[in-house]
Amino acid sequence: MSRLDSFTAIDFETAQWNPTSICQVGLIRVEDGVITNEIDRLVRPPENYYFYKNIEIHKIQPEDTEDAPSFDVVWQEIRHWIIDQTVVAHNAKFDVTCLRSTLSFYNLPQPAFQEKCTRKIYRRGLSYLSKKYKISLNHHDALSDAHACAQLYLRHLAHEKLPKTGSLFPDY
Question: pLDDT truncated to tens, each residue of the chain (172 aa)?
C-alpha cells in the first residue's frame, strides 16, 4: 500500500440512482502531504440518461456529457492513482460502490486499494466541515468535493501525528 501521507481523494457524481451512472469524476492526488495532481472529467453515463433530481443537485445535464468519454476510457487515465493506493472519499460507501459497480458494468477487473472515509472520521457532512475549517467548496462538483475531502484527510493525518491526550473523541 501507499505511504501514509500519499493518497487519492475521489468523488463521483451520478446521473441517476444507479451507481453505474457516473457523470463526473473528481480526483485529487496527494504525495507526501502535497497535492500533485487534479483530474476533473465529465463522463458519459450508459445511454446518457439522467434523472431530473440528480440534475437539480449537480447541474450536469445530458448535453454536457453527450460527447464525453465513457467511464471505461476515463478509468485508463485514473486507475494508477487508485490501484494499490489509499483512496479517500467523503461517504466512501457511495463512491466505492459507484467505482466497483461501474467497473463491473464495463467488465473491468476490481482493483485492490485501501479505503478511507472522511465522513466516518469526522462524523459530519462535507458542507458543515468545509465551513468549519474554511475550505472552499462548490458542493456536488466532483473536483471541489474531492479537494475538500483531501484537505480534511490531510488535517486528520496531521492530527494523528500529535501526541494522544487521552480524549475519547478527537477535537475535529
Answer: 346 689 999 999 999 999 999 999 999 999 999 999 999 999 999 999 999 999 999 999 999 999 999 999 999 999 999 999 999 999 999 999 999 999 999 999 999 999 999 999 999 999 999 999 999 999 999 999 999 999 999 999 998 776 655 554 555 5
Asked if residues 16 and 51 have their Cβ atoms less than 8 Å apart, the reply is: yes
Burial of 38 (0-12, 13-18, 19+ CB in 10 A): middle
